[in-house]
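In practice, a research group might receive sequence data for several interacting partners and want a quick structural hypothesis before committing to experiments. The following worked case mirrors that situation: the sequences arrive first, and a predicted assembly follows.
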Amino acid sequence: MRVALLSGGISLERSVSLQSGRRVADSLRQLGHEVVRIDPGPGLVADLTEASPEAAFIALHGRDGEDGTVQGLLELSDIPFTGPGVAACRLSSDKGLAKHVFGMEGVPTPAWFPVTEAAIRDYGAAAGLPAAVDRLGLPLVVKPASQGSALGLTVVTDPADLPAAVVTALSYGPSALLEEWVDGRELAVSVIGGGALPVIEAIPTERPTYDFEARYEIGATRFETPARLSEADRTAVERVALAACDALGCLDLARVDMLLADDGPRVIEVDPVPGLTETSLLPQAAEAAGLSFDALVDRILGLATGPDA
Amino acid sequence: MEPEQVPPAPRRPRTEARDLERYAALFAVRTRQMRSSAMRNMMSIATRPEVISLAGGLPDTSTFPVDLFEEIASGIAADGLAGALQYGPTEGLDGLREAIPEVMAREGTGAEPEDVTVTTGGQQALDLVTRALVDPGDVLICDAPTYPGALPTFAAYQADVIQVECDSEGMKTDLLEQTLTELEAGGKRPKFIYSVPTFQNPGGMTLSLERRRQMVEIARRFEILVVEDNPYGLLRFEGDPLPSLYSIDGGGFVVYVGTFSKIVAAGLRLGWVVAPPPVRQKIVLGKQAADLCTSNLVQEFALRFLRSGLFDEYVDGLREVYRSRRDAMLGAIAEYFPHGADWSRPEGGLFVWATLPGVIDTGDLLAKALGENVAFVPGAEAFVDGRGTNSMRLNFSGVAEERIIEGVRRIGRLADRMLGLYETIANTAELPLPDGAAEAKRRQAG
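A structural hypothesis for the assembly, expressed as tokens:
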């Protein structure tokens, strides 16, 4: 099959995406596909037309790759593509929207307040911040609504640091969240084809928070796959992960990041285009389930093109 | 002869999770200090053509005369090819070692050809000097801010870097003396002071004559070396040249690092180091281990260029181009940067260092700027100790004037927006504020 592999792009996670792309290209060729690599930019539509692929494999992260923009273009061009559709991508990539959906569907998620640059500028929304602090308590997390990595995230312990934390979060997108701090184990559940892969626990070895560096550096975080969980916890975690994906419409492919607190799991975010680098969690989970990287790539592509392809 | 068909590349072995742990056990301890940063990951966007990158330290290579390049290349082909394609002495070709002191003489620095070691860029000189002098845990002193590219080198040798504050006249020598005295009291003797005294990277400032004398005197008194990195000295747009630390010292405690990157072409990867003979010997031994010798072809090219008689004219041309780019940048900063910003006014070199009000984190500003296709180096990259978060380094040598102005305009507008947002939040929300911000708020109210 002639597959357009989309990686690179103009998001802040470009280099991570390029890493994912190299691995995926290698596997696609191994699987016997013809690979046309496309680095999405101003010429994307022309590049797609020229490549005229039978399917597109999306290995983009961050802005545009995960928020439905590229997916919308592919839909328009009538090219089947990997991962969730436009609506699911839009919902997942805005953590605020996703939390609204979780609220409606009864998916547990930490308490939160939205804050947007426009609301602060036009409606004096900052006046509500002290009340938000009162209700969420300290410490609290301030983070951009649209960034998958920990870029722009601040853990605020002193309210005096809140304005700077909000400005930081809003540097990575037009809206941000103030979120209740939940003390718990950091878990990731990869979902593929409506089923959960083995749960992974991320245990930072050097730093207190699982930040951008730790996420992409070998050795900075220790991963336990499968996570050591009681049967009851594991069932609860998987159930909540699948419920989150179902709510957002991305049961085909996603990685659900969660915190497991004493009173149960909370969903932090759902990534509809999980990383496929050497240190990414989806390939680790697949491997634990006995699925090689090639087989994983084959499965993801198969879900996009249907059983007949 | 070409093979009929290129055989397929062997497939790289799969690195699955459990293999990664195996690699992790193989990595040297020093690699733990060598990590990529979020900033560097973000900067991978900056190489895209639509991005106005004020981030790199790129010299303008577009003005190198094409016919002269052809002439030199044909000259090498006609009468020097076999030698140019051969291995050479580790110290460098004799002809170039003789020509380098002539380059240094243009700034009034005298040096003996036998003290010169040709290196693969100034960066290798830094690496070789550090390799020769530094054991894990040894203390190094450098400027605050310092050349960001020196820090990975120092980290690779597990040096303990201490940065001494600079002002518009370069490193504060009273603080240097105080730092050395304190270290001495604690039984520590740093191996060297690393400084870019002229048109500093990233600060743009120049170490004053008085402080140059003091730095040399202090180094002698404490018997530690000074590594003087001078890539930009010949790129002076105005003012009188100052004597190098090397010439003040006379080659006793100062190691001089030079490069052709900014005065001929960075793509040559050609630099040099001038060091006292015992230090030079260790540097040469290190270079043997690193790469045996610098490319003869490249050395031959540079030598013929220096001998062509067109070198001075070329550097004059660069100076003109960079001067007007600097003027464009300084003008744009004055026009577009927010109230409360401060910046250097370099008399030469490649960089302006700008500092914004303290509430702006230039790492965040970079994220916004990349969204609008502009890049710069956030100040924190020039420190090992978390300082510089509201500063930035802006390069003016590698970008045309209209693009410099547009880039600075976008950065200024974004900084304004961040400041406005901060003030709105701080003034609206009844929150306890950090001291600096509370004071600013009072000032604003008054």
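Before designing any experiment, note the following. Residues 38-57+314-445 of chain B form a domain with the Aspartate Aminotransferase, domain 1 fold (CATH 3.90.1150.10). The first helix of chain B runs from residue 17 to 26.
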